[in-house]
Structure formats: structure tokens, C-alpha cells
């Protein structure tokens, strides 16, 4: 049973797929050739599901960091005899254009061991277990390479010297002295494709150098934010870029599946797909953290993925990263789950839920990114107009809401709010959409939604805007009311909602809980940790309300849980402070970027007011 902390991992990405690496040099998660492909290594979810370790014999102390401006990981091992650096990267490929980062990714994992002083004995154990641990491959050797064949693909592992696999794994022990380097690579090819030749030592070095240069070029051009928590914002921007699927412009919610929201519980979901909501928020955060040239790609992906949706039905809320619609959920009984948190799921049963908020998130992203989008093509305009019309016609329906409840649909306040956002943004973009003749109709419906929210969404007993119409239950999603501009943060009802959430919807660490699971609204047993995105929302609203000192305190409470390489999962265990949920989580990094930006803007407004 895998027990290593979720926050102990670092992310590698080639913008096609992802790997997780522990601080002691073990790859515990790798899917090729896509984020949502079946795993090659999955010891993250079960000890017998495969890993690839490179570590000192006898143990060592270690430190690690990403190479500046990159998603290339450098882990330094220290013993009394010497120091060794391990470089890990998913190879980006030969493109030198930072605007096309990862376009020609060769589906290779590169690893290099370099001794900087003294000497050290290193052992590597590569134990591939394709198809989520179901397959024990058959091995054959080819020069300095080992081929593992089984299932739908073949894996070629390049070694610095010849080895003979045994007992279902590739093992090599070697000693490096100061100045020496030993390099490794793993390539994946589909069954029927010609086998690649093994990487030479020089080719691994060249691939690592090119990957570092590619990430650094992208960061230098795109990352211009220069406010508080600059390094955290820039790192979050790179993480969000790393979670994007370059071939289509899709953005995954996280790199993993089934990391739990409660240890030992059943709240374990597959997040390796592109949620309309998450991706829209991500594009907006990249506007702050990384100047997204990918706006066209994202909206082209959404337009194409949703092209065959029936106009009389709700927009599908998530897609496969290649535009797939059917994401039917199943469990993997062969995997015990992280710390015994079963079931392990692939696919996601929420794919066909009605969630009305997605219309607003897409149109809000389009408004934020309208300069990047420029003159929209007809397909994009038609798509966005259809979203506004869907919001207008469906806003009075019940749905499953932002938190994808598996209980009975309700009139969720957040869903109504985002339908208002959809129509408000459509009105503001009517000219760009070539739809000025529709603006009056959209504005009238938006006003009807506003009246309903103010009348039925506010609960005097709770002293707050609540989770759903006629409900006294709190929901942190109400914090979005001022963020999307429905009411100003200074409005007395907003401030009362903020104070109610601080008083009744935060844990002992001062972190925000999404909603009280004890109400049974979500139809799932058990509880969950505090939700990082919601806590960042609180910091953002406090900043917008002029309560900047409080906003900074809340922000700092969250970022002290960032791991040593700047990554955040979805939630924090309120008791232990450990990271919980899928990792790294786009939502959490989106929240970090937006809250830092809001605090920065609030401080600038105060400074300007003082000097004017």
C-alpha cells in the first residue's frame, strides 16, 4: 500500500502527459502518451503497480528544486562520501519556438545522474507495470537498451551499460565519481510501431539541455507578473502550462486519478480530463501568470468538442483531452489506492451531469481574453452566442452544481450566478460577437436572474447568500458573487456572507471548507479536507473589500502548505495539514494566481489614492 505523502511528489510534463517523482528519486506515476492514458508506473496507488527509482545505496539526505524557469527537476543527494545531482524531465522535443512548447514531444522520460563531488554508489530499479499494474511485461535486450513488451505498447529503457532484466524488473548498481555522468531514458511506442533505438548518453544530455532551454524561453517571454509572491505566481503559471495538452489546447484538472479527499474514503475521482469550468478559470489565471497565446487553441478545442452537443440539452461539462465525450467511469480492483483509499477510478461519472455554471465560465474567459482572441471566427462566435442562449433558456432549471453533487439536483445559487455572468458578458461582447441585436434580450434575462438571486439566494436566518435557493446551508461558492462583479465586495450582504463563512465554514487552521458534507447534499459518504481554491477566493474577496491585511493572512495560511517545489493538491487535511486530493491541482494554482493578483491590485489602488 502506497503511503508516501502526496506533497512529497514533484511534477514532470511534456504538455502531452505527466509523471510524478518523489524526493528520493522514484517515479511513482507515469502515463504515456497522454495524461489520461493507462499508466506505466502507478506505485502511487499500489506498491505492485510499477515504479522507477534512482537513488543512493544506503540512503542519503536530499534537496530538490526545479531548474530556474522550467519544469525540469534537480534532486541533490548528499552523503559523507560525495554529492550527486539527478536531473529528471519529460522531453519537450526539437521545437525551438516557445509559443509551440511541447509540440513535438517524443514521449520520452529522461533521467541523468551527475556526481559533483566525491563519489557515490547508485542503484536504479525500473519496474514497469503497464495498464494500471495489470501487465508484467516480457523483457528483451538490445545493446544498451531493454525492451519491455506487454499490453498495447512497448517500453524501451536506455541504460548507460548492458543489463540483464530479472524478476520482472531492470536493476543496475554503479558508482559515479566527481565529474562523471550516467544517463537513462524511457520511450513508449504503440504496438505495431517500429521500436526506437536506445538513446546514447549524449542524446539524453542534449534532450535535457533542449528541454531546459524550451521551458526557460517560454518563461522569459510569457511570465511578466511582477507583484507580491512573484515566484509562487510564476511557478503556478508553469504548472498550469504543464497541465495543458498541447495538441488540442485542452487543460486537465490534475495529473492524477483517485488521490483521495479523505484518507480511506470513497471520494476518489479521476481528474485527467478537461473540465469546461476548470479550463476556463485556468485560461484566466494564465492571463495574469503567463500571457496565454493558447487562448485561440483553447476556444477552438471547446468549440470543436462541443460541436455535436444537442442544442436542446445542456453543454457537456467536461471532455477527454482529445475532445472525447463518453468518459464513463469504472473502478480498478487491482489497485489498493493511496493509503488504502479505494476504489481507484478511471473515467468520471460527472461527465453527463447538468451543470449550468459552465456557460458563464466560458463567456467570462472569453471576455478576459478578448484581446488575445481578436476577431473571432464564425464558429467561435456561434458557439459563444449559443452559450448565452442556453443560459437564458435553462437558468431556472435545477442542476448538480459546481461541486458535481451525486445527490438530487437543486437550484444552486452559484449556477444561477454564472448564468447571469454568461448573459452579462454576452451583452458586453455583443459587438465582437456580431450580435448587438441580441443585447437587449440578454440584458433583460440577466436582470431577471439578478432579481431571483437577490430575492431567493439571500437567507436572512443565515445572514448570508447560501448554497441553494430556500436553503440555510453555507457554500464557499457564494464568494464568487463579488469576484464576478454581481455585487461589489463592499456590499453589506457580501460582507455578511464573508463573515459567516469565516465563522462557520473554516477549519481550525483557518482554511475554508466548500460546504458541510454532513448535510448529505452531495450523495457521497464521508468527509473531505479544506478546499484550497475556496480559501484563495476568501483572500481575493477580502482584498477587493479593502481588508488587505486579512487577505494577506489568509493567503499566507494557504501557501505555507505549498510543497518544496511549489505544488499544491486540491485540499488540506484539517487535522494533519497534509495535502489531499489529486495532484497537482489546477484549481489550487488558479486560486493562488488570482488571489495574489487581487491583493497586488488592491495595494496599488491604496498607493495611488495616497499619492493623488
Spell out the key features of this protein.
single chain; 14 helices; 25 strands; 32% helix; Beta-galactosidase, Chain A, domain 5; three-stranded antiparallel sheet; 14-stranded antiparallel sheet; alpha+beta; Glycosyltransferase
Describe the structure.
This protein is of the alpha+beta class and 612 residues long. It folds into two domains: 6-218, Beta-galactosidase, Chain A, domain 5 (Distorted Sandwich); 223-611, Glycosyltransferase (Alpha/alpha barrel). 32% of the residues lie in helices and 20% in strands. It has 14 helices and 25 strands. It has helices at residues 201-222, 230-242, 276-289, 295-305, 358-368, 370-373, 378-394, 413-428, 439-457, 480-483, 492-504, 532-544, 548-559, 586-611, and strands at 9-13, 18-22, 26-31, 39-41, 51-56, 61-66, 73-78, 82-90, 108-127, 138-142, 145-150, 153-158, 170-177, 181-190, 244-245, 250-251, 274-275, 318-319, 330-331, 345-346, 458-459, 464-465, 530-531, 571-572, 579-580. Strands 1, 2, 3, 4, 5, 6, 7, 8, 9, 10, 11, 12, 13 and 14 form a 14-stranded antiparallel β-sheet that branches. α2 packs antiparallel against α14 (586-611), α3 crosses α14 (586-611) and α12 packs antiparallel against α13 (548-559). The longest helix has 26 residues, at 586-611. The radius of gyration is 24 Å and the shape is globular. The mean pLDDT is 93.
Amino acid at each position: 500500500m502506497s503511503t508516501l505523502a502526496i506533497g512529497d511528489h514533484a511534477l514532470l510534463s511534456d504538455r502531452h502527459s505527466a509523471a510524478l517523482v518523489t524526493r528520493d528519486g522514484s517515479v511513482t506515476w507515469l502515463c504515456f502518451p497522454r495524461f489520461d492514458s493507462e499508466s506505466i508506473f502507478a506505485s502511487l496507488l499500489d506498491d505492485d503497480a510499477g515504479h522507477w527509482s534512482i537513488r543512493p545505496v544506503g540512503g542519503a539526505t536530499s534537496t530538490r528544486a526545479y531548474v530556474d524557469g522550467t519544469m525540469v527537476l534537480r534532486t541533490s543527494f548528499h552523503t559523507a562520501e560525495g554529492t550527486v545531482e539527478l536531473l529528471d524531465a519529460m522531453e519537450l522535443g526539437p521545437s525551438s519556438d516557445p509559443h509551440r512548447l511541447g509540440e513535438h514531444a517524443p514521449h520520452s522520460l529522461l533521467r541523468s545522474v551527475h556526481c559533483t563531488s566525491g563519489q557515490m554508489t547508485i542503484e536504479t530499479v525500473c519496474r514497469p507495470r503497464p495498464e494500471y499494474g495489470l501487465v508484467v511485461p516480457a523483457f528483451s535486450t538490445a545493446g544498451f537498451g531493454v525492451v519491455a513488451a506487454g499490453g498495447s505498447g512497448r517500453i524501451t529503457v536506455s541504460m548507460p551499460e548492458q543489463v540483464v532484466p530479472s524478476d520482472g524488473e531492470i536493476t543496475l548498481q554503479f558508482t559515479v565519481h566527481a565529474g562523471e555522468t550516467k544517463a537513462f531514458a524511457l520511450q513508449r511506442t504503440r504496438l505495431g510501431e517500429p521500436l526506437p533505438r536506445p538513446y546514447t548518453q549524449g542524446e539524453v544530455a542534449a534532450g535535457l539541455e533542449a528541454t531546459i532551454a524550451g521551458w526557460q524561453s517560454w518563461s522569459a517571454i510569457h511570465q511578466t507578473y511582477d507583484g507580491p509572491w512573484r515566484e509562487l505566481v510564476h511557478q503556478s503559471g508553469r504548472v498550469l502550462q504543464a497541465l495543458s495538452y498541447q495538441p488540442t489546447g485542452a487543460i486537465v484538472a490534475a495529473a492524477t486519478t483517485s488521490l483521495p479527499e479523505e484518507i480511506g474514503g470513497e471520494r476518489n475521482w479521476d481528474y485527467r480530463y478537461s473540465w469546461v469550468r476548470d479550463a476556463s478559470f485556468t485560461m484566466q489565471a494564465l492571463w495574469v501568470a503567463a500571457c496565454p497565446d493558447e487562448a485561440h487553441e483553447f476556444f477552438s478545442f471547446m468549440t470543436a468538442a462541443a460541436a455535436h452537443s444537442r442544442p436542446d440539452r445542456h453543454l457537456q461539462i467536461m471532455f477527454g483531452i482529445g475532445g472525447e465525450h463518453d468518459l464513463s467511469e469504472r473502478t480498478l480492483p487491482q489497485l489498493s489506492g493511496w493509503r488504502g483509499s479505494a476504489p481507484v477510478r478511471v473515467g468520471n461519472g460527472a461527465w453527463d451531469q447538468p451543470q449550468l455554471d459552465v456557460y458563464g465560465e466560458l463567456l467570462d474567459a472569453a471576455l478576459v481574453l478578448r484581446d488575445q482572441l481578436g476577431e473571432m471566427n464564425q464558429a467561435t462566435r456561434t458557439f459563444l452566442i449559443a452559450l448565452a442562449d442556453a443560459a437564458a433558456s435553462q437558468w431556472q432549471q435545477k442542476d448538480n452544481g459546481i461541486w458535481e453533487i451525486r445527490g438530487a439536483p437543486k437550484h444552486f445559487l452559484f449556477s444561477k450566478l454564472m448564468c447571469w455572468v454568461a448573459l452579462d458578458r454576452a451583452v458586453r461582447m455583443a459587438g465582437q460577437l456580431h450580435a448587438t441585436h441580441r443585447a437587449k434580450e440578454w440584458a433583460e434575462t440577466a436582470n431577471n436572474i439578478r432579481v431571483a438571486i437577490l430575492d431567493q439566494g439571500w437567507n436572512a436566518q443565515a445572514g448570508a447568500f447560501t448554497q441553494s435557493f430556500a436553503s440555510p446551508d453555507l457554500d464557499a461558492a457564494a464568494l464568487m458573487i463579488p469576484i464576478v462583479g454581481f455585487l461589489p465586495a463592499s456590499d453589506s450582504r457580501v460582507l455578511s456572507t464573508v463573515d459567516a463563512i469565516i465563522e462557520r465554514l473554516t477549519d481550525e487552521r483557518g482554511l475554508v471548507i466548500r460546504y458541510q458534507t454532513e448535510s448529505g447534499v452531495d450523495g457521497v459518504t464521508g468527509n473531505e479536507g479544506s478546499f484550497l481554491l475556496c480559501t484563495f477566493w476568501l483572500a481575493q474577496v477580502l482584498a477587493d473589500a479593502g481588508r488587505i491585511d486579512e487577505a494577506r493572512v489568509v493567503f499566507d495560511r494557504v501557501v505555507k502548505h505549498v510543497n518544496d517545489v511549489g505544488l499544491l493538491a486540491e485540499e488540506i487535511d484539517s487535522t494533519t495539514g497534509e495535502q489531499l486530493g489529486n495532484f497537482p491541482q489546477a484549481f489550487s494554482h488558479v486560486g493562488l494566481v488570482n488571489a495574489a493578483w487581487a491583493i497586488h491590485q488592491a495595494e496599488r489602488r491604496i498607493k495611488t489614492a495616497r499619492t493623488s
